[in-house]
Amino acid sequence: MKQQWQELAYIHWRYDASVVQALLPQGLEVDTFDGSAWVGLIPFSMRNISFPGTPAIPYLGSFPEVNVRTYVKKDGIPGVWFFSLDVNRLLPALAARASYFLPYCWGSASHEVTSESLTTTVKRRWPHVASTSIRVAFGDRIEQPDELSVFLSARWGLYSKGFGKSLRYAPVDHETWILHSATLEHLEDTLVIAAGLPAPTGDAHVMYSPGVSVRIGLPHSV
């Protein structure tokens, strides 16, 4: 598929690696930085989903999304593991569950962006209730991203469950992220704990990006 991930905030917290590892399927190893696992709450605007050789899908192909994710590796190949992905379009949620086996959830969602901040809300209705309310203010471009910022953003594949106990991997390709400094001004969230994780503690690592154009390859068993 082709799509655009626009007006995106990276909100991450440190977690004990063993806590995150306990929630991963057999065969995946939590990827760590500075001795910690990292869990992200990522609000953004999904735009213009399409397939090769086709125009963007109207209405159903653009929507706000918030995902809860961590970082993993298998046989040395790093990728993203999604605990949940919340959207306000039921058909895309069902299609993504059926094709990529990703844990999409459905409910109401909004994503509003000004020149200085973004505000995102989710009220999940299915498959179980959870919610979030996020406001992030962003500032100057980060000209030289540090190693942690690259670790959290430069991910070129995603893992998901396959049939039975198998795993699947799909490659992801896009241009280099343009990253900005950002501050978490407001957060009321139950999406993270709904994933089975403890509530985050400590200061969040926060960044903003205007977005990238993305191509996601077909998933295959690994």
How would you explain this protein's 3D organization?
The protein has 222 residues and is mainly beta. It has one domain: Acetoacetate decarboxylase-like, CATH 2.40.400.10. 12% of the residues lie in helices and 55% in strands. It has helices at 17-21, 90-99, 147-153, 191-194, and strands spanning 2-15, 29-30, 37-50, 63-74, 77-87, 104-113, 117-126, 130-141, 157-161, 167-174, 180-189, 205-216, 220-221. Strands 1, 2, 3, 4, 5, 6, 7, 8, 9, 10, 11, 12 and 13 form a 13-stranded mixed β-sheet that branches. The longest helix has 10 residues, at 90-99. The protein is globular.
Low-pLDDT sequence parts: none
Named CATH topology: Acetoacetate decarboxylase-like
Number of strand segments: 13
What's the alpha carbon Rg, rounded to whole Å? 16 Å
Question: What would you call the shape?
Answer: globular
Please give the CATH class.
Mainly Beta
Number of domains: 1
The proportion of strand residues reads over 45%
> Major beta sheet, specifics?
13 strands, mixed
Global structural class: mainly beta
Helix content: 10-25%
Question: How many H/I helical runs?
Answer: 4
Mean pLDDT: 94
CATH superfamily membership: Acetoacetate decarboxylase-like
Gross CATH architecture: Beta Barrel
Order of helices and strands: EHEEEEHEEEHEEEHEE
Distance between the termini: 20 Å
